[in-house]
Amino acid sequence: MVQRARITKPLHDWDNSFEKLIELHQKSQDPERLKNRGGQLLRDERARKALKHQLVKQEKQILEISETNKGNDRFIVNGKNLEEYFAAKWEDLDRIHSSFINNRKMKRKK
């Protein structure tokens, strides 16, 4: 039980950070943000860059903890092992980004 807690807390933190990254990404798609003064755009971009870096570090730490407990049961999240779970989340972010780009292209064609 203690070993599972060593993975669940960092994984929960990773999920929270990833949700913040998605929020910042969606916020960056808003064209009204370009009219905002006061440096909010720069702060958002810095936060997004820092979150990406933090997520990669957290992901490595979680995978290292998982590897040290490899003799025990594999850690499963939503029916997937950790590597598949992380890959699926990053693919979701890419899908969100590509859908925004496609929507923007469709608006330009009209």
Q: Can you describe what's shown?
A:
The structure is a single chain. The protein has 110 residues and is mainly alpha-helical. The protein has a single domain, classed as Methane Monooxygenase Hydroxylase, Chain G, domain 1 (Up-down Bundle). Helix content is 76%, strand content 4%. It is built from three helices and two strands, in the order ααββα. It has a two-stranded antiparallel sheet. Helix 1 runs antiparallel to helix 2 and helix 1 packs parallel to helix 3. The radius of gyration is 18 Å and the shape is elongated. It starts with a helix and ends with a helix.
Briefly characterize the structure.
With 110 residues, the chain is mostly helical.
Key features?
mainly alpha, two-stranded antiparallel ribbon, 3 helices, 2 strands, 4% strand, coiled coil
Radius of gyration: 18 Å
Integer tally of domains: 1
The number of distinct β-strands equals 2
CATH architecture: Up-down Bundle
Global morphology: elongated
Distance between the termini: 57 Å
Indicate the multimeric state: single chain
- Helix amount, in percent? over 70%
CATH class identity: Mainly Alpha
Continuous helix count: 3
Q: Beta-sheet strand percentage?
A: under 5%
Largest sheet: 2 strands, antiparallel
What is the N-to-C succession of helices and strands? HHEEH
Assign the CATH topology. Answer: Methane Monooxygenase Hydroxylase, Chain G, domain 1
Q: Overall mean pLDDT score? A: 85
Indicate the structural class: mainly alpha
- Output the strand order for the largest sheet: 1-2
Low-pLDDT residue spans: none
Coiled coil: 41-68
Keywords: Coiled coil
Pfam families: MAP65_ASE1
